[in-house]
Amino acid sequence: MKIHFYIYLIISFSLLVTCEKDDICAETTPTTPQLVITFKDANNINESKAVESLAVYAIENNELILIETINGINTDSIAIPLRNDIGISNFKFYKNHSQVDGVIEGDENHIYIDYNTVQIFISRACGFINNYIDLSVLNYDPNIFGTPAGNWISGYEVINPILENENQAHVNIFH
Amino acid sequence: MLIFFTRTLLVFLIPVSIFSQENIVSTDSVTSKQKYGLRIGLDINKLVNSSINDNYDGFELNADYRISDKLYIASEIGLTENTEVEEYLNFTSKGTYIKSGIDFNMYTNWLDMQNMIFAGLRIGYSDFDQTINNYTIYDINNQTWGQSFINSPIENKDLSSLWLELIIGVKAEIFNNLFLGFNLEVKRMINSEIKDDIQNMYVPGFNRTFDGSSFGVGFGYKLSYLLPIIKK
Predict the structure, then answer these.
(1) Residue from the list A79, A82, A125 with its beta carbon closest to the beta carbon of B87
(2) I need a labelling partner for A156 at 20 to 30 A (CA). Which of A7, A23, A64, B206 fits?
(3) Is the ipTM of this complex over 0.85?
(4) For residues A92 and A104, what is the distance between their CA atoms, to the nearest angstrom?
(5) Which domain holds residue B168?
């Protein structure tokens, strides 16, 4: 009679050890939103105006990193990622961009973005995403002395300073 | 640690003193000699796991006491410190738990044996802390700035959970008064207090939780010793 118990014990035990579940973050999970920018006509701020051959570079440690999806395209709206480790992101926006033998040509304009990050828990598998609040923009580099002024970007407007998704524009840029 | 053991003993002894009196009355009719008493044990699986797994430390004491022919009151008390490493985060849950309830023996014993094939019901309660030790911000557009690894822990202290547990298992006497048992547990969370909207991903005693589900599972591998108090 006791043998029955042992057999039952061993079988049940070995069954349990074999089943463990792995978690994978599903692709449909909401992710950290990008900053959505629309370009408008400086002379008529309600009209969209595409930028000819636009390229956007992120600036990190004085190095320019090209955002692969915005590489000399004609467009009136873009989405750019913000830095997650600190609350400032710097970009160079190039109009009429071309790059020959590693030399960047075109009309440049600095874009400085200041914000606070908020961490939002999603799940065990996906961890946390960032949302951004208190977003503000400058069309020049505040770390360079001189008269602050944009180059080809004459103005800007923050429509929505809270970034929770990419469903609508957060910033308008006038040119 | 010493305080923990003293408390544990107290918790186990109190129900015994309550039930032992009823017991004498209710067993008068039993004709064959039967051992009644407190069976105390510990969970071997948790001990083994603690020694081989760097991310886990657990200890559980259990006790049951026979109050009628088929019915036992049973309780487990334990402490757990468990760290889990996921793709985007790493967290530690640490705390104590107590489970109390009954076991119903479905196995007919010969004479004074106390072997069991049993089904049981418990109510479980845990008091714990959950700390996210470090995490990487989940961002599918991280090709530009790179992944952002954050090493400042998020600590959520004094969390609690309450759950119900169904148990099936066996206990067999392998030597005189020494029992070896195995059981499966299916749990259903009744209430789990969260902080900062962070899910309680692992609750001591309940084990891991699943997204969008209040169910949990577990098992025990228990060695226990019967202290014969009454023979009838």
Answers:
(1) A125
(2) A64
(3) no
(4) 11
(5) 2-28+37-231
Its domain, for residue A32, covers: 23-174
Higher pLDDT, B72 or A1: B72
Q: Which residues of A15-25 are buried (b: 16+ CB within 10 A; e: fewer)?
A: ebeeeeeebeb
Residues of A whose CB is below 8 A from B213: none
Number of domains, chain A: 1
What is the value of pTM for the model shown?
A: 0.79
Tokens of A171: 């910033």
Does A10 map to a domain? Answer: no
Distance from CA of A43 to the nearest CA of B (A): 33
Among left, alpha and beta (phi > 0; psi -120 to 50; other), residue B35 is beta
Provide mean pLDDT across the span B151-157. 94
Asked if A50 has any chain B CB less than 8 Å from its own CB, the reply is no
Q: Which CATH number goes with the domain that contains B89?
A: 2.40.160.20
DSSP state of B69: S
What is the pLDDT confidence band of residue B30, given thresholds at 50, 70 and 90? very low
Position A63 in a domain: yes
Name chain A contacts of B118, Cβ cutoff 8 Å: none
Residue B112 tokens, joined: 């004074």
Closest by CA to B11, choosing from B130, B96, B128, B91, is B96
